[in-house]
Specification:
This protein is of the alpha/beta class. Helices cover 37% and strands 21% of the residues. Helix 11 packs parallel to helix 13 and helix 14 packs parallel to helix 16. The structure holds iron/sulfur cluster.
């Protein structure tokens, strides 16, 4: 009879692990708890970690107190996210002490802080950067012997994109598919090029295969993701990739995020005009409505250039939802600069925006120049907060008006699942990415089905509707 060690090793082999990997993780079944901070790239990375560990007899637990391994996948885009990490680590320390769980930090803060994080958090077992996810099984074994930081970069020719396990997506209507990673831009506020490295695009054939495999198990909508996804160059350009994925049988919808305005080509605009399966929603971060601020941000466009692309998009696909990001309180931002951001918001009438107070990040151009000249002066926090509140109040009004315009329309909704675990409440999204709540059970609105829904109520961030029939 096999002992638990070799049995688990055999299970790992059977699930596709190599012999060396299986040996590295040959232990009794264990549980992993994953806490993800930040963006969709991190959500996708966490999903790949869970799938990888699943091949080594790890199952996911939603309870950190039951876990043998607690993984925190972190975000370094704002200082607040780092503070959240440190307070979460403080909470998990207790579970580690009680159960002897391993505690590990991955993602962008890990890449930024490297072994400094180990020195700062003495009960942390190991730290690993985004390029090292594939080594997790070996790192778990190594953590039995020593504390370490594994934050090296992989050369672009060696880089292997973690592949989604289609079986893990069975029963789901939507999935993220990684198209590229890293960023070659140098926006002066952004730490991403430092924590995620240079751009590497995944070969388009791999992306097509992964999307086709997801469609086979019932996924109907894929979102292609990357830090700067529209600069994709994995054997074809981004508009061609979108068209190839949209042409796959059984996939009904394709989305992508996130984009830099200077990579929004005319060919991409034309893709929106001619390919109905590319959904009419574009997240196009503008960051500021003032040209001098955009110049200091090194965004490589003016407000008028941005609006030129914006208008082309809306003309190519009338009714398209366009969302954006704003940073307020960027160094040297005057009252006049900020008023221009408000004016841009009123002019573009973005369907929604994500807005934040600037926070200086290590290794970035703006942080280095902060306070070095009048145009790089630090904005008092109270001023930044007051500006943020004004911007967000204006956005809430514009978003509510956009939602109210949907009232009484019949819209297509792709059902995603139960709303907050309630049996008789379901939710899905329109092509424009608006969330719609339905009073229906699973039999009436199963995940993956597209329904025609009449909008009966408009809320600030969502709609409610009644089913009219199949879409
Ligand atoms: S485009 Fe700019 S903001 Fe976006 S990830 Fe790259 S450096 Fe950061």
């Amino acid at each position: 009879m096999s002992d638990p060690v070799s049995l688990t090793s055999m299970v790992a082999r059977a699930r596709g692990a190599t012999a060396a990997e299986a040996r590295a993780c040959a232990v009794t079944p264990r549980k992993v708890f994953v806490h993800t901070f930040g963006c969709q790239m991190n959500d996708a990375d966490s999903a790949r970690m869970v799938e990888l560990l699943g091949r080594y007899a790890f199952s996911v637990t939603p309870h950190p107190e039951d876990a043998d391994l607690i993984l925190l996948n972190t975000c370094a885009v704002r200082e607040k996210a780092e503070q959240k990490l440190l307070s979460a680590l403080g909470r998990y320390r207790e579970h580690k002490a009680r159960r002897g769980a391993l505690l590990a930090v991955g993602g962008c803060v890990a890449q930024q802080e490297k072994d400094r994080l180990l020195a700062r958090v003495p009960y942390l077992d190991f730290v690993f950067g985004p390029d090292n996810i594939a080594k997790l099984p070996e790192m778990i074994e190594r953590a039995r012997r020593e504390r370490f930081a594994e934050t090296g970069w992989m050369a672009s020719e060696e880089y292997l994109f973690p592949r989604a396990d289609p079986q893990a997506a069975r029963g789901r209507a939507t999935a993220f598919v990684t198209a590229m990673k890293g960023c070659d831009n140098v926006c002066s506020f952004c730490i991403v090029p430092y924590t995620r490295g240079r751009e590497i695009s995944r070969p388009f054939t791999e992306i097509e295969e992964e999307c086709a495999a997801l469609a086979e198990v019932g996924v109907r909508e894929v979102t292609l993701i990357g830090q700067n996804v529209n600069s994709y160059a994995g054997g074809c350009d981004f508009p061609t990739l979108l068209r190839r994925v949209a042409a796959l049988p059984m996939l009904a919808r394709v989305r992508f995020t996130t984009s830099h305005p200077h990579d929004l080509s005319d060919a991409l605009v034309e893709t929106f005009r001619h390919e109905p399966r590319v959904m009419p929603h574009f997240h196009l971060p503008v960051q500021s409505g003032s040209d001098p601020v955009l110049l200091r941000m090194r965004r490589d466009y003016t407000v008028e250039e941005y609006m030129g692309r914006f208008e082309k998009l809306r003309a190519a696909r009338p009714g398209m939802a366009i969302t954006t990001d704003f940073i307020v309180g960027f160094p040297g931002e005057t009252d006049e600069d900020f008023e221009r951001s408000l004016q841009l918001l009123e002019r573009a009438r973005f369907d929604n925006s994500f807005s934040f107070v600037y926070s200086p990040r290590p290794h970035t151009g703006a942080a280095r120049r902060l306070g070095s000249a009048p145009e790089w002066s630090e904005i008092p926090r109270a001023v930044s907060i007051a500006r943020l509140e004004r911007l967000q109040t204006t956005q809430r009004r514009i978003s509510s008006e956009a939602m109210a315009r949907e009232l009484h329309k019949t819209v297509e909704v792709l059902v995603e699942g139960a709303l907050d675990g309630e049996e008789r409440r379901r939710f899905g999204r329109t092509p424009e990415n608006r969330v719609v709540h339905l009073d229906a059970d699973e039999a009436q609105a199963p995940a993956g089905v597209r329904l025609a829904v009449r909008v009966t109520r408009a809320h600030a961030n969502s709609l409610s509707g009644e089913i009219v029939g199949p879409a």
